[in-house]
Amino acid sequence: MPLDDLEERRPARRTKGAGRGSDAAKPTLRTIADLTGLAVTTVSRALADAPQIALETRQRVAQVAAEIGYLPDRAAQRLRTGRTNVISLILDPHEEILGYATSMIKGVTSALRGTPYHLVISPHFSDSPQIEPVSHIIRNRLADGIIFTRTEPMDERVKLLMQNDFPFICHGRTELATPHPFVDYDNYDFAYRAAKKLIASGCAKLTIVLPPETFTFAHHMRHGFMAAVREEGIGYEIATGITLDSKSDDIRHYFDKRLSQPSPPDGFVCGGEVVAMAIMAACHDHGLLPGREVDFVAKQTSGLFDQIRPRVETIYEDLTEAGFLMGEMLLRRIAGPLPVGELQHLQRLADE
């Protein structure tokens, strides 16, 4: 027999001022109990979606709560359960990947939908240590789990979180000896396949703009690119003095100068849409036509290049899927310890 059938019942009555648009005090569990005729303990369990409470009762309580604008007291919940019901997503503002933040947020919120968890965005800026926002969250217990991006080979954030047994998922891998939770994109394979495509199109000399060397995916991209050019024995160069984090004008100016010098590259591996557009602008200013004198392969994370003519060869990275996977895996980790292997996912490129 469902628990609510055993709980104390009282005649339902409408309390003074209850309902939308009233000037009454903030609705409480007692307000819902008075409106439904259920005991406060039953209301509390129903809102927590306890399986011992009949589904019909849970739905009725949820409907009344929504109608009167009931919101749980987060401070009281934290004192009672030790949980904040908050997931913190630490994001670095950067422009090299279009739609990075919005796609990531969309994916994470999709994973949290229908759960008691709320997503809080915690910004991190490049002029401050990466570990600061993580330390702040752990020290003040501001979240039940953390998601962060732009990992480094010996990432101090991963070390700190693991030492404190604090649930987390990062977007990207490290080179630490101890396995840790992550979702990552196969940037080695991206750079390898992009270089191979350019070679197959007839390019004689390739170049690539890499992420800053401090990030792990910079090494993955470099190794994939070098594997392809060495296999084919083709000319190559790696852009120096600029990275994927450079301003688009700086990237355009770099290639404007490089294309004026002897033996310029004619094939470009672009790790983001912004860098691709900057290089395309430089080539256009030199009268070089895509598909004829020069070729590009770009990593695509938005729908922008679907509208570009002439068409540019692209390889897709699904950031929304990455966000969803991180959110879903983090919820499972918060629920209890899991083997690390169940909290790791590498997004593979689609077979051609």
Low-confidence stretches: 1-23
As for the CATH topology of the largest domain, it is Rossmann fold
User: What's the total helix number?
Assistant: 12
Helix share bin: 40-55%
Characterize the largest beta sheet: strand count, sense, and whether it forms a barrel. 6 strands, parallel
Straight-line N-to-C gap: 56 Å
What is the CATH-assigned architecture of the largest domain? 3-Layer(aba) Sandwich
Q: Count structural domains.
A: 3
GO molecular function: DNA-binding transcription factor activity; transcription cis-regulatory region binding
Region (Disordered): 1-25
Domain HTH lacI-type: 27-81
Pfam family, one: LacI
Which key features would you list for this structure?
alpha/beta, Rossmann fold, elongated, five-stranded parallel beta sheet, 40% helix, LacI family DNA-binding transcriptional regulator, single chain, DNA-binding transcription factor activity, 352 residues, six-stranded parallel beta sheet, 434 Repressor (Amino-terminal Domain)
What does this entry look like structurally?
By secondary structure, this protein is an alpha/beta fold. It has 3 domains: 29-72, lambda repressor-like DNA-binding domains (434 Repressor (Amino-terminal Domain)), CATH 1.10.260.40; 86-180 and 320-347, Rossmann fold (3-Layer(aba) Sandwich); 187-316, Response regulator (Rossmann fold, 3-Layer(aba) Sandwich), CATH 3.40.50. Helix content is 40%, strand content 14%. The protein is built from 12 helices and 11 strands. It has helices at residues 29-36, 40-47, 55-68, 74-81, 100-112, 131-140, 156-163, 187-200, 216-232, 248-258, 273-285, 319-335; strands at residues 86-91, 118-123, 145-149, 168-171, 182-185, 205-208, 235-238, 267-270, 295-300, 313-316, 344-347. It has a 6-stranded parallel beta sheet, sandwiched between helices. Strands 7-6-8-9-10 form a 5-stranded parallel beta sheet, sandwiched between helices. β6, α9 and β7 form a beta-alpha-beta unit. α5 (100-112) runs parallel beside α12 (319-335). The relative contact order is 0.12.
